[in-house]
Design brief:
The protein has 1 helix and 11 strands; from the N terminus they run E-H-E-E-E-E-E-E-E-E-E-E. The protein is mainly β.
């Protein structure tokens, strides 16, 4: 892995290129984001801090702060838009590719894969899961490096 982690920096949501799933929004008890910014910064050599800030289309704030183990493992959730009882386990596939399993009360609710483009200018997160009726859903969030 190079010394500069491709995830580091400030990322702004490209709402027009993102596709929001009603099932995912129901799990999150949210409306689609009007705007959202992610900031990844290094904390020592083993962790990345992720701060999330934004606004939903209904005007409610989006806020979160988590500590992601650089090589993978249990994510420390300090503040999260995720439902109460949620946990995250991450796996770093390669420097530009990370996978995470999202659970609520020990049961998987969805998975997410985040990929930073080779040129480092775009980041795509795809969430996949099943809704309360067992129907599959997929959501795409596209972020542009600032």
């Amino acid at each position: 892995m190079s010394n500069i982690d491709p995830f580091l920096g400030t990322w702004k949501l490209d709402v027009a290129k993102s596709k929001f799933s009603p099932a995912w929004l129901a799990i999150m008890k949210a409306t689609p984001p009007k705007e959202e910014t992610l900031v990844f910064r290094e904390v020592g050599t083993d962790e990345l801090e992720l701060t999330i800030a934004g606004t939903q289309t209904d005007g409610k704030p989006i806020a979160g702060k988590t500590m992601w183990p650089r090589q993978g493992g249990a994510v420390k959730i300090q503040q999260s838009p995720l439902p109460e009882g949620s946990t995250i386990v991450s796996t770093r596939i390669d420097p530009n590719n990370s996978f995470a399993t999202y659970m609520m009360n020990g049961k998987q609710i969805f998975v997410g894969q985040t990929v930073v483009s080779e040129n480092g200018n775009m980041m795509r997160t795809t969430f996949k899961g099943t809704d309360a009726q067992g129907k599959p859903f997929e959501q795409l969030a596209v972020f542009v490096k600032q």
